[in-house]
Amino acid sequence: xxxxxxxxxxRRLGAVLALVAVGGVxxxxxxxxxxxxxxxxxxxxxxxxxxxxxxxxxxxIGVAVFGFMFYVMYAHRKSRGAVAENFHENIVVELxxxxxxxxxxVVMAIPATTALLKVYxxxxxxxxxxxxxxxxxxxxxxxxxxxxxxxxxxxxxxxxYGREPKGEHYLREVxxxxxxxxxxxxxxxxxxxxxxxxxxxxxxxxxxxxxxxxFTSAWAKTDQVGTYVGECxxxxxxxxxxxxxxVEVKEQAEYDQWLAAKKQEAAAYASTIGKQxxxxxxxxxxxxxxxxxxxxxxxxxxxxxxxxxxxxxxSAIALxxxxxHLRIVVDGVNGTAMQSxxxxxxxxDLAAVVHYERNAWGNxxxxxxxxxxxxNYKQGQ
Amino acid sequence: xxxxxxxxxDGWIKYxxxxxxxxxxxxxxxxxxxxxxxxxxxxxxxAMIIRAELFQPGMQLINPEFFNQMTTMHGLxxxxxxxxxxxxxxxxxxxxxxxxxxxxxLPRMNNLSFWILPFAFAILVSTLFMEGGGPNxxxxxxxxxxxxxxxxxxxxxxxxxxxxxxxxxxxxxxxIATVMNMRAPGMTYMKMPLFVWTWVITAFxxxxxxxxxxxxxxxxxxDINFGTSFFNAAGGGDPVLFQHVxxxxxxxxxxxxxxxxxxxxxxxIPTFSRKPLFGYSSMVYATASIAFMSxxxxxxxxxxxxxxxAGELYFMYATLLIAVPTGVKVFNWITTMYKGxxxxxxxxxxxxxxxxxxxxxxxxxxxxSIAAADMQYHDTYFVVAHFHxxxxxxxxxxxxxxxxxxxxxxxxxxYNETMGKVQFWIAFIGFNITFMxxxxxxxxxxPRRYADYGLQFADWNMLSSVGAFMYGAAQILFLFNVVRTIxxxxxxxxxxxxxxxxxxxxxxxxxxxxxxxxxxxxxK
Lengths: 381, 524
Ligand code: HEM
Ligand SMILES: [Cu+2]
Ligand SMILES: [Cu+2]
What we know:
Chain A is α+β, with helices and mostly antiparallel strands. Chain A is 43% helix and 15% strand. Chain A has three domains: 31-119, Helix Hairpins (Orthogonal Bundle); 127-157 and 169-270, Sandwich (Immunoglobulin-like); 272-379, Cytochrome Bc1 Complex, Chain D, domain 2 (Orthogonal Bundle), CATH 1.10.760.10. Chain A is built from eleven helices and ten strands. Residues 20-30 of chain A have low confidence and may be disordered. Helices cover 67% and strands 1% of the residues of chain B. The radius of gyration of chain B is 23 Å and the shape is globular. At the A-B interface, helix 1, helix 2, helix 3, strand 7 and strand 9 of A face helix 3, helix 7, helix 8, helix 9 and helix 10 of B. Bound molecules: protoporphyrin IX containing FE (HEM) and copper (II) ion (2 copies). The site of one copper (II) ion has 4 residues of chain B, from helix 7.
């Protein structure tokens, strides 16, 4: 194990040193990208174009200014016998180097304005998708379609902590990607549930903060079918680096199929609510939900992080009356990181996770919480 | 008073009391400088932890929670603990000697404004050892991550920020009062050295914006403890309000950091060019207009929060404008060197590197100000690279240049030139290896404040970490060189020290006596 890590490390270091030496591309990781992606939408292309314009203008000015400076450093050095002159003012050049840059800036401002107008052109969308940032996952809701799901990191803790080799899509894979159709104008309505996140897909040129209590909007339209990976771009707490965005662009027909399947899935799920679950079924489901949605804070072993996230093992709430426990999980605790899970988890998931917390890690309440109990609790409010 | 300052020979109680109760601007300047260096090393240690963790993909050394505490503490300690006090220290040492004053105008307040600082940072750093850990919400501490979702220790953070703010405000009032009232006869405003000018303007900025910062943290305190909802959407507040308030402080803050640095290089470049500063008055006007404009561009840090397009356009245009006076300064420095008689001692090397690298950071600043492109750059490593080019290669390089430049005047001994140059080259190369690749990382899509990253970013991150360790090592050499100069340096007696140095401080004996200009000099 250690040997392997060592070998990997040496190989990588070698690659890096080679990189320094030749400034080129090494064999490993062929995707060593240096520049902003051109992306697949009008907006990302506009951002790329203005980025390149700015870079070239800066490069030209830089070469001129630094070139002159290096010439001065070479030509007027004392060791070459240079004798200092005594001038210290020249109104003409001083005016020139105030006015000329100002003109260049005005020239820059024109394409910069057109590019921004494109970013803001969110009218007349074909599809509206609500994007909600949660600590630390994304929820996508197809407005008017009744389809809604969570999208979370799929990379395992073992890969992150080096107990298993890292897969090809390390930190670039999610449980369920966002799916959109090619050739349609999709508008994203972005908001946050807890803290501020930022929904970023570089290839779409879309980065918008997901702010609680506020909607921001952005749009994308592309003909290029494929998978596009993005990130959360605003510090949102512990797992900020672990909530990627993955978007799949599908042909219209495939998209329609996918949407129909999602709708069916939602309908099928509704029927499981009435069913009586056994304790074992709930424990199995609960463990899965817990590790996915709760372990980030309360930890896999239920012991929390002292002073930040309370332990659930032996906690008075987990061992106390189930109503109180349900209340905290369904409604959250206002003003703390313990958010409401009413919209994030289904009744089945909620029942399972509460049951799990009451009967795992040595907690042994022994009662059983059914999905109908959750439903009753919610309706009783 | 006839007797000099207490030394160790007078017994340690006397010696300690000298530093605790001192009202001498040189002693206080020394205290500020050592304090800031200590903070620089501490903040640097945090940075080394960050870069060590980011050396490879995956979590190896620390967990993401602690990682966030490290980035936050690194930012806070460097900005408020290292850079700002360093320039206040220089101001204390130099402003009275440059304008022919015997001391600062308000010497007792001067003592207070220094001595509360160690407490502020002790409080801040102690949170790392408390339950819940230190602040973990970034040096920009956006609500509600820093309010509703913060660890309880955030209250200590708020208290610490208040103390730092009080210290800065007192320091600034002192500088303004000194410059307005204590100039030697004949030292008109337009004869003041540029370092003094940049500091007065900075002091006005500080007095204007530190209360805004205090307001922001006070609103946080109320939200956290007294049930208000300034920044809590659920209670009718607005998280974006926090960002407006913060950046109304934050953007002027970046100029608070850089303007005194402009002042320092404007002293050093003429000396080693043996030629007066080109365009003195345009330098003064450029500084003043940069300071003014810094108040009207704050929301360029917020292009992605979804402002109305008119707001975005305004903040974009206004930000572009700042490049004009900034350009004037760069052109003036280069023209000062033109047809001079240049030599390249360590302070000059750092100053030239300042001009080049700061300008580079200015170019990326220009790119960032283009709102449509900033949608891609914002909150990525591209921004991290930008502000390290302006803050490290800008402020820290100029601070280093200043220490080498005035150290002989302060202690009457010459530093080791070879060691200084070696340090310069390690720092210069290490700096660029650290931060140049971060531009590529950002453009390729790596967000900032990430504890871990995908495999496609591995190589540049490793290179960046190697550079960071190099840059860190250069600081050890710096410390060694300075200490060795003080203990074993070759004595200097020439008051002027440097062949081309001009200004009142160079008319004083070397080393500068404990009390100077007790009778004001006459400036023609
Ligand atoms: C030509 C002058 C400059 C321009 C046009 C400029 C522009 C910008 C812009 C637009 C941003 C926001 C980027 C983003 O977050 O998306 C930014 C960030 C930043 N700039 Fe500058 N800048 C300039 C000079 C400076 C100077 C002199 C300093 C400090 C010495 C500085 C320090 C910073 C810092 C600290 C940030 C990042 C703040 C954060 O998010 O933590 N900049 N700059
Ligand atoms: Cu995030
Ligand atoms: Cu700014």
